[in-house]
Amino acid sequence: MQQPDEVATDARQRLRPAGIAFGGDYNPEQWPEEVWAEDVALMKEAGVSLVTAGIFSWAKVEPRPGEFDFAWSDRVMDNLAGAGVAVCLATMTASPPPWLSRLHPEILPETADGRRMWPGGRQHYCPSSGVYRRYATRLVEQLATRYADHPALEMWHIGNEYGCHTPMCWCDGSAADFRRWLSDRYGDIGALNDAWSTAFWSQGYDSFDEVLPPRLAPTFPNPGQQLDFARFSDDALLQCYLAEKEVLRRITPDVPVTTNFIGVHKPVDAFRWAAEQDVVSVDVYQDPHDHDTHIAAGFIFDVTRSARGGRPWMLMEQAPSAVNWRDRNGPKPPGRMRLWSWQAIAQGADAVLYFQWRQSRGGAEKYHSAMLPHGGTETRTFREVRELGRELASVPQIAGARSTAEVALVLDWNSWWALELDSHPSTALDQMNIALAHYRPLFEAGITCDVVPPDRDLSGYRLVVVPNLYLIRERDAERLTDFVRGGGHLLVSFFSGVVDECDRVHPGGYPAPLREVLGLHVEEFWPPAERETVNVRHRDGTVSGADLWSEVVVPESAETVAVFDSGALTGQPAVTRHAFGEGSAWYVATRLAPRAMRNLMDEVRDTAGVGPVVTGLPEQVQATVREGDGGRFVFLLNHGREQVEVGLPEPMSDLLTQGTAPSDRIRLPGAGVAVLSTPWTRHTKGQR
Ligand code: GAL
After folding, report:
1. The whole model's pTM is what?
2. Please, what are the domains in the chain?
3. Going by C-beta distance under 8 Å and a sequence separation of 6 or more, which residues neighbour residue 67?
4. Which residues surround ligand 1 with Cβ inside 6 Å?
5. Interval 55-109: pLDDT, tens
6. Is 524 annotated as catalytic?
């Protein structure tokens, strides 16, 4: 029998609007009340089932310190409840009201060079500020008490995009909090000196009181200090979130909580944060001017799904059409908003929401598109929104279904922070670019991929891809080694396994903890000059380009699969393969050109016996599967502009074009989507 706490946990993990939730940020405080009735009427017309309200309402509900005015938000909540629209209610703490920074200027954040960030935008608070947290939790207490039993309340949206504008703060308050955090981490100053290698450059500390955040310094600040400051800053933001969550749990234990990630955001470790959320949500703004935007978005969606072990997640924000914050803000051409919304669902989302419901008349985001544009309902955007709302409502059975992956790509925030520190062999290594270069060939081949931290259980995967894991803990290296020993296949790329948790080089020659599994060592790093390319000769005699990085690889028991074919390292290994235990471990010592990377990944996948959901997929077509109580669904998405035909293993019909006869060929126009309901199981090549 379930214990009461488990029941509560289960209830919190459900998105309660039936089917795929649809809606957006609702900011009624920007409008006179006469508009509100029209809002809910049009929401119904557009198929809106969930809105997220109140994100920037602090100044409105608490116009003066301690004076709360919820009368207007009561009416908003009542209107929405009356219309059957559920509310993901924000805790309203994302943008402190002007009175708070006038009363307490010490809450304002400071940059590394000591400049204060003033009010006038948003998110102008120091994450370590106890004063900010005190006022924020006081407001949350009032809100939670007020709306605990309101029929519209479905979930809580804590803060908003933590770390979007103020991921770090270097003020005196942060300095004091950093010292406390360090003292908890290290216990005594000797341990900190050791971790930070302070014997170098006469940096030895005598007490925690001497330690500062890495403020503007004459040259490279201590790398250990910088790395710990990244950890600390992530933690300070998380503490803000947790302080609010604690109030909500106390007052509304059965109401699920979430906070929206900004894509995959360096300052916020999504894997740590996800564990503190009932439902994970993310904001993704695909760029219509970027031909590959869906691949980068696909990566974010896979991180979001994997962050909570595959549970359905929410696309909390996307633009109905253009944004206002890039240099050139292109609208989404017809069909793209639908396609990219379906992409989120195909990759595991159970909610498609937008920023925002009604386009603002004033303020910094008046040129940002909205579900209901300045032009009203007779607009392409509103028509497309309404059409999508109708379409999503027609397939409620998809909600709750999950996908399984045979491939995992490893991403680690600690390593990301360390990799991109200064004073390295090259400053050109960008964690996201490297990760995407490894994700793309999987995405393009129609392979579902989880993105996991290195301490996740890997036993369910056939192939693990490690684009770069510069910082590695011994136990994680052992986990990767055991994975291969037991029959898994591993692909690791350059500059991995180099340092420990304190950014100190692992003794024993690079990459010491991975030497055994990779069957090699690396003697020297050899980054090419900017824009320099090198040739790589593959086993079949073909030659491809590479850039960004190279290194002197000395095989021990690994075999060489490709060699450098130009430049200083001519003839030396560029790619190796090591038969180890029951599996194999591949190493890539450079950034291969995309075509060569695709060939290599195909070969490694073949060895691992990992095949696509649908074989023979046309270029630009994405294919995924979700499976649950409502059935098994194959999603086909054409990211190209031209019509294509996809061959299926048996006749099937598209749920989105009800009434058409089953066929074993599906025609997808440019930006087209099909959702096939099928008992058919996916094609895999052989068993591990
Ligand atoms: C997000 C933010 C929203 C809105 C949106 C515009 O970063 O959470 O409040 O500003 O961007 O694209």
Report:
1. 0.96
2. 21-166+252-398 (3.20.20.80), 180-210 (no CATH), 407-608 (3.40.50.880), 621-678 (2.60.40.1180)
3. none
4. 160-161, 164, 283, 285, 317, 323, 355, 365, 368
5. 999 999 999 999 999 999 999 999 999 999 999 999 999 999 999 999 999 999 9
6. no
